[in-house]
Amino acid sequence: MKxxxxxxxxxxxxxxFGPSNIALSIALAEQAxxxxxxxxxxxxxxxxxxxxxxxxxxxxHLQISFLKDLVSLRNPTSPYSFVNYLQKQGxxxxxxxxxxxxxxxxxxxxxxRWVAEHFSEQCRYGEEVLAIEPVxxxxxxxxxxxxxxxxxxxxxxxxxxxxxxxxxxxARIPELFKGLKSDxxxxxxxxxxxxxxxxxxxxGKAMKIAIIGGGQSAAEAFIxxxxxxxxxxxxxxxxxxxxxxxxxxxxxxxxxxxxxxDTMYKQQPIERERLLKEYxxxxxxxxxxxxxxxxxxxxxxxxxxxxxxxxxxxxxEIEQVTATEQGIELALRNTETGQQQLASYDAVILATGYERxxxxxxxxxxxxxxxxxxxxxxxxxxxxxxxxxxxxxxxCNESSHGLSDTLLSVLAIRSGEISAALYAHLVQEKHxxxxxxxxxxxxxxx
Length: 446
Ligand SMILES: Cc1cc2nc3c(=O)[nH]c(=O)nc-3n(C[C@H](O)[C@H](O)[C@H](O)COP(=O)(O)OP(=O)(O)OC[C@H]3O[C@@H](n4cnc5c(N)ncnc54)[C@H](O)[C@@H]3O)c2cc1C
What we know:
- This protein is an alpha/beta fold.
- 31% of the residues lie in helices and 25% in strands.
- The strands form 6 sheets. Strands 4-3-2-8-21 form a 5-stranded parallel sheet, with helices on one face.
- The radius of gyration is 24 Å and the shape is globular.
């Protein structure tokens, strides 16, 4: 193992190279043509980038129009649009013939990788950022130290004037299951494809599997187990009274419009909370309506054939979890009838969503400069005046910027806003920007 310290001071380092930071790279490349290029570097812990790769099953499709790709809403003429990707792959006409706005996640994953490859010089894969530390000079934090570790365990230290933290979500593990982290029979949906391959059902052995949750991921796993693992008997266990459809009707969908970010941001915290609650059914604990119909029809066919393979346990709360050699035993209570029941499973899939707290861990060494992790309208973290290095956060600002913040919906616009704010910050801090004199840069901004 080696440790390396880079003497370059970057203008920007990005944590993660998922859709948020890939979109930002496009926006920065556009801005660079007008104002000069920045020295930027993005670090992603995946050695081979995949977009939620362990969840891409045959049935998973984008839950949003492909027109909300990484760039089209800001710059429809960009070469990095999904339409141009299709053209370059020779599939544009075929895709049109499909008559859909919703490509498979497999295809969208390929699109993201295709765009990312264009920016490969600015990205290092297989490097996990461990912490961000302040570099203190005369009581001020003008730059940040980014500490990362690669897959061989080598540590690197880099310095940057600005940082953008876009690490996505962490699997949410319900309290009752936290003690079973090392039990191979219990896993989160974010690991679905790699873990299911290691279960006895992959060899055709009979298994009883519980899927916990009533959202899109749970539904996708349920269908995949039905289609690809005929030896599995699956139970979906959910708190809701039924599987509920995602509301994607046009008026409601306006909540994902870029202009709604302003509407949300201008509100007082209590009103923001009310708006989030009112539109929650567009994204959380809901399932694409076509998929609900597919599941209903699957269960109906079972009834007709008399082979009732799978079950739904709605209105069900899990009260206790016990792991034994024989299986994972769940103590269940029906919240409508109060009836209690024990059920034993060979494996449990936790389709229990994601938490967005990674930025707090990563920025812990800067805690003295940060109060509550709120950001301004352009996603810059609010710090006290001693911290002059700019830190932008993406994907963890739902409470101030709305439901779009964790999704693809506003990526194209948000990346343009962050890019403009970043250039303005660097000018204000009078940092030279590569290939353009500061005077010319101030001129272009004015
Ligand atoms: C299964 C699934 C399906 C989804 N489908 C849709 C959809 O259809 N439509 C939609 O709008 N949204 C969807 N989403 C929401 C999703 O959050 C966004 O689509 C999008 O992935 C957000 O991009 P991101 O770059 O912010 O985060 P991510 O895509 O999560 O990318 C974060 C990246 O950061 C890297 N990373 C994390 N921590 C570190 C670290 N410490 N150091 C270095 N790298 C790090 C990760 O490896 C990852 O590549 C889905 C989410 C999931 C989980």
